[in-house]
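Quick log. Single chain, no ligands specified.
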Amino acid sequence: MRGAWTIYRRELAGLFLTPLGWILLFVALLVRGILFTIYLDRLGGEVNAALSLTQGGSVLYWVLMVLLPPLLTMRMVSEEASTGLLEFLLTAPVTDAAVVAGKLLAATTFMALLWSTSFLYAGTAHLLGAAPDWGALLAAYLGSVLASGLFCSIGLAASAVTNTPLIAAFVAVIVNVLLLFVPLVRANAGQLLHLPPDHWLLDAMRQVDLLDHLSGSAWVGVVDSAHVLFFLAWTALFGFLAVRLVETRRWR
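-> predicted structure:
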C-alpha cells in the first residue's frame, strides 16, 4: 500500500497539532488517573485488581472506548471531503487502501498511547513496593489496543459515509454501543425464544461477542491467537468497507 506511511505520519501529527487531540488526551488521562486512585483506595491497595478495572473492568473504561475513537476519526474523511482536501488526496499517487490504512493506524496509535498510561501506574506501584502482574497487564493492554483498532475502523467507515463530522461520530457511537449490547441480546434471545444453548443463532451472536473474546483472553492474562484474529478480522472488514466508501467518492 504505497503512501500508507506518509498518510500515517500526516494524520498522527495532525492529531497532536490540533486542540481536539490534546483535549481528548487530557480528559482521558485525567479520568483514568482519578479512577485508578479511587479503585486502589476502595480495594485496599490491591494493585492488580485496580489495574484490571482501569484496563477494561469498569463502565467508565467502556465509555472512553466507545466515545474516543469516533471523536478521533470523525473528521478524517468527512471534513476532508467537505473542504475538498480529500479530492486532492485521492488524485495523489496513493491508493485508497493506503489512505484508509494510514488514517486507521494513526487513530489506533493515539489510543494505544492513551492506554499505555496503565504502565505508568503499574511502575509507580512497583517502585512503592507493590509489584503488579506485568504479564496480565500486557495482555489487557493488547486487548485494549485491539478493541480500539476495531472501533477506530468503525469510526473511519462512518466518517466516509457523510461529510458532516458530528453525524459520523454519532453513527460510529451507535454501532459501538450495539456491539457492546450483543451479550445482553444473546442472553435475552435465548430466554425469550426458548432456544437451546447450541442453537445456531446464539452461536452466531457468540462469534461477534466482543466482551466474550476479551474475557476469554486479555482479561485473564492470556494472549489467544483465536481472539486476536477475531479483532483483526473485524477491523479488516470495517477497514475494507471504509476503502470502498472512499472509492465511491473518487468516482463522484
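The two ends are 23 Å apart (CA to CA).
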